[in-house]
Amino acid sequence: MDDLRNKLxxxxxxxxxxxxxxxxLPLILRYCELGYxxxxxxxxxxxxxxxxxxxxxxxHIGDESIHAIVDQGFIATTNFEDTAQCDxxxxxxPTPLNKHREPDLSYVTKTVDSLLPYIRKGQVISLESTTYPxxxxxxxxxxxxxxxxxxxxDIALIYSPEREDxxxxxxxxxxxxxxxxxxxxxxxxxxxxxxxxxxxxxVPVSSTKVAEMTKLLENIHRAVNIGLVNEMKIVADKMGxxxxxxxxxxxxxxxxxxAYYPGPGLGGHCIPIDxxxxxxxxxxxxxxxxxxxxAGEVNASMPQWVVNKTILxxxxxxxxxxxxxxxxxxxxxxKNVGDMRESPSVELMEIFRxxxxxxxxxxPHVPVFPKxxxxxxxxxxxxxxxxxxxxxxxxxxxxxHKKFDYDLLKAHxxxxxxxxGKYLEPSKNIIKA
Length: 433
Fold this sequence. Notes:
The structure is a single chain. By secondary structure, the chain is α/β, with parallel strands linked by helices. It has 2 domains: 2-206, NAD(P)-binding Rossmann-like Domain (Rossmann fold), CATH 3.40.50; 232-432, 3-Layer(aba) Sandwich (Rossmann fold). The chain has 15 helices and 13 strands. The chain has an 8-stranded mixed sheet, sandwiched between helices. Helix 8 (208-238) packs across helix 10 (274-284) and helix 12 crosses helix 13. The longest helix is centred in the middle third of the chain and has 31 residues, at 208-238. The model has no long low-confidence stretch (mean pLDDT 95).
């Protein structure tokens, strides 16, 4: 393993990134920037073709960045045989939930199984996908060692959770500290060598389990606090208090308070999903994670809360939901990006569609409703104009993109359901939700 560490430190190692999406592509750019030879491996032929043509499929990464790395020698491929050329294999594949809200590790296990014919002595395998504590040891270790290679001697195995935040201008892959845990101390040393050039600060921990739990704690912390403020929103609403004004005032305290904000539900690839990875695993140890599950229930109920507020608002104008024209503003899960993963806006659209409403959306970051595993709308984003706004009986601010003109919206929207606290001043056509 000394030779592997030397290759990584001298930048002569070949890096393979498996999964070229929101997590994998920024890593590819970073390792190419450092001068490593890099392969991007993915089962999606359209993504591979796009990258090899020098084009980006992510809004926050420009075509010029991809064109530059292709000129440098980067290769995207669907052929797992190419992983035999790689000294480091970094796995960045999805870890969703199944229909029973249980962990679905099939992307991880299928990826590792696809690697097995080609792994060899002198490689390091790093899993970055979010998962429950024990995954690396229980699922990946036995598969790797079934080839006859010994982890810690012949091959290194580490877990280093991704911390990407698409659209966040304050941080980039290089500046976000990287937690890293190895199966053995020797594995950890290789992991540090793998990431130390690419990331400004590597945070070593004692095991892969600690690293796996660290990622879950980070996102459960956010999920629980968002659940708290969502519940506070409901209480404040019943009392005629604007929760956003309360949060703004509370945030003036310079210690002991961190501002979290309510919304129409949780979205993204981490916060709606990660807590359930821990609650599922905790049951193996006879533990009922009531606190985490309660926060999940509160957050999951938010889309219906918004629907109920909208129904009441329409009712006050003498309109039923059925047949009403409803516009959803913003269908990405967070503002200023085009990422649709687990977006609560989509759930809102489905509920209103099922109630018989005529649904449309406007999102400058999502011009056409994408193909999704569980959701389907044959829609395109409508242009945000005064004329279009006036056509709708109700407009819901679901994602507060900066590109929306909120003054124009206030002037031309008949009913505006504000789930993001964009309007602090009361107005007869604005409903807080």
